[in-house]
Structures are given as structure tokens and as C-alpha cells.
Amino acid sequence: TPTCSDYHLPGFVVRADELRAKGVTTIACVSVNDAFVMGAWGASQGVGESVVLLADGNADFARAMGLELDGTGFGMGTRSQRYAAVVEDGVVTHLAVESGPGLEVSSADAILSVL
Questions:
Q1: Which domains does the chain show, CATH number per domain?
Q2: Active-site residues: which are they?
Q3: Global confidence as pTM
Q4: DSSP 1-70
Q5: Residue 53's beta-bridge partner residues?
Q6: What would the pLDDT profile of 10-36 be if each residue is shown by its tens digit?
Q7: Number of C-beta neighbours around residue 48 at 10 A
Q8: How, if at all, do strands 83-88 and 28-31 pair?
Q9: pLDDT digits 0-9 by tens, 56-91
Q10: Contact between residue 84 and residue 67 where contact means Cβ atoms under 8 Å apart
């Protein structure tokens, strides 16, 4: 979506060094897309090595996390809600899920404030 491409992902790319300074070892972005789309998106966004892009082609991860979103009314099929998670030793210690289409609680700035 425009919010993901214009603000969400770029925020984590721009703030990657600050996140790492706070102890973050891996910054990953999971999206309900295939690996080829994720690769092209990463290239167009200039992600480089700052963020690992992970494809969730069938929304299996989103579904397992309870974060699937029915986007069929918008012609988008099954998607994922917009969120950010802090994971420590395989345990989610903070999960910020957006309640609407905006970017209030899951931005890089919001995550920096909880680290």
C-alpha cells in the first residue's frame, strides 16, 4: 500500500542504525506477497542490507499470528494487518497492531520509543 511503501518500510530503513544501537540485531519486514515481489519492492525502496524482507505468499504467517486481514472488498485478497513486533529470543515482547489504515503505533519511531 502507499502507507507501507511511503512511510512504514522507509522508516525502518532510515532508522536502522538507531534500532541497532538499541540492541536490535535483525530488522525484518513480512508481507503477504511472493519472494519476487518482495525482491523488487526492496530494490525499488533501496533497502539493501538494512531490512530483511520476508515473503508470506499464502498469508500463512499472518493467519498463524492472528493478523490476517480480508482485503477482498478492495480487490486485494487476504492480506496482513499493519503491525510491528519486538521479538526477543523467539518471544514476542511487544506487538503494535494498527487499528486502522494509518501508521500510529507500528512506525519505526514508535518502536524506538519502546526499546
A1: 2-114 (3.40.30.10)
A2: 4
A3: 0.92
A4: -HHIIIIIHHHHHHTHHHHHHTT----EEEESS-HHHHHHHHHHHT-TTSSEEEE-TTSHHHHHTT-EEE
A5: 29
A6: 999 999 999 999 999 999 999 999 999
A7: 10
A8: unpaired
A9: 999 999 999 999 999 999 888 899 999 999 999 999
A10: no
